[in-house]
Amino acid sequence: MTSSSFNPVFSARPQSIFPTMSALARKYDAINLGQGFPDEDGPEEILRMASDAIMEGPNQYAPVEGVPALRKAIAADNKRFYNLDIDPSTETLVVSGATEGLAAAFFGFLEPGDEAVLLAPFYECYAPQIEATGASIRFVDLEPPNWTLDAGALENAITDKTKLIVINTPHNPLGKVMTRDELEIVAEAARKHDLIVVCDEVYEHLIFDGRPHIPLMTLPDMRERCIRIGSAGKTFSLTGFRIGYVSGPASLITAVMKAHQHLAYTSPAPLQLAVAKGFALGDDYYRTFRADMQEKRDFLRAGLARAGFDVLPCDGTYFITVDIRSVGASDDADFCRMITEKAKVAAVPLSAFYHPSQENAPRVYVRFCFCKRIEVLKDATDRLSQYLC
Ligand code: PMP
Ligand code: GLN
Question: In the chain, where does the domain assigned CATH 3.90.1150.10 lie?
């Protein structure tokens, strides 16, 4: 068997940029500001509940849709933060990480001949997952440095084959939060062309400077067209739990569930119970989580500026982008390899967030992640300053 006989959607692509950069960081003993994962685990209450639930059960298959306690918590969370009325028993679904939720959505909604619209740059798994369904992708390029969505560009990308649009706010890798005007552009297109919108909102609780998160689903007529995807990995700093959740109208949730049952089937029952406990945490948890992360953003931003980088705005997520032309570099992938090996700090090139066919994708931006302890960020920015200045 040669790899040329395997499905090229996967086999013709390189390994994902995140494990690739993490492996390189390990090889050169570099501080890993590439792959986005916190270096401190989330709340102790959740960890304890997980270990109790493993000891006491349930440890057999959970219901396909998720354990009732977590489904109830997901619905209550929609009400608590966004005043959305979601029926736990028909309008929620527990998935094995947002990654699997996205795959289940694309497999549930798309078939060969359909088109999906992606705003580029976009989170890495969207394109291969969509292509694996047999659907094709149309891209709308967001232009640096503000990465603003243009209504005309979106309209041009939509054809009579378009079935869905994917949006991601707050945005990985850009750290951009979509404005109400931009959300309205998407809503208008969805209404006009009768489209589904897959809303990747995994960083919903990581928006800074007092700005709110606005789910597209809260805009007029959007309740029936959108699914919202969240992640316990991001909200509770437990990326290894692999628990995600999807909310939306029953017809869309059923379609996603029908794919989910043949992808992951179910998600770990004891961890679902633990995450349900997380949803009951008070407002203090969210306030502190956001404030801590904002402090880290400010710290990394200042350190990167001191190292000579032109730093782009970051309103949410745990990623910050720099323009590497400010330090005399011109190729993001080469630059990331070089700083990992020489400065001993790993980062991720933004070109990895474009489709391989997008030959004109910018190659001068690099993403650093700041969900690390301040002393780690200090060490990393000191190393970058020493190497670059
Ligand atoms: N969407 C975005 C925008 C992400 O950044 C990530 C991962 N960090 C995911 C989805 C996947 O989340 P999960 O780890 O829950 O699969
Ligand atoms: N979402 C994380 C990032 O953007 C990594 C997730 C992964 O490794 N799949 O860095």
Answer: 3-41+284-388
Q: What spacing in Å lies between the alpha carbon of 347 and ligand 2's midpoint? A: 12
Q: What is the per-residue pLDDT for 63?
A: 98
Task: Single out the residue of 207, 247, 255 nearest to residue 228, CA to CA.
Answer: 247
Complete edge-to-edge strand list for the sheet that includes strand 319-323: 310-311, 319-323, 365-369, 348-349
Q: Is 99 in the pocket of ligand 1 (CB under 6 A)?
A: yes
Pick the CATH number of 44-279 from 3.40.640.10, 3.40.50.1820, 3.40.50.620, 3.40.5.50: 3.40.640.10
Q: What is the CA radius of gyration of the chain?
A: 20
> Ligand 1 mean position to 202 CA, how many Å?
6
Q: Whose CA is nearest to atom 7 of ligand 2?
A: 18
Rounded to the nearest 10 degrees, what angle do helices 250-263 and 97-109 cross at? Answer: 110
46-67 pLDDT per residue, tens = 999 999 999 999 999 999 999 9
Spell out which residues line ligand 2, taking CB within 6 angstroms.
Answer: 18, 35-36, 172
CATH class of 3-41+284-388: alpha beta
Task: Please provide the average confidence, as pLDDT, over all residues in the chain.
Answer: 97
Q: Ligand 1 mean position to 112 CA, how many Å?
A: 25
Of all protein residues, the one whose alpha carbon is nearest to atom 8 of ligand 1 is 36
Ligand 1 center from residue 21 Cα (angstroms): 16
CATH 3.40.640.10, the chain: domain bounds: 44-279
With a cut of 80, say whether residue 3 has pLDDT above it: no
- Tokens found for residue 355: 């489709």
What whole-number distance in Å separates Cα of residue 212 and Cα of residue 183?
A: 13
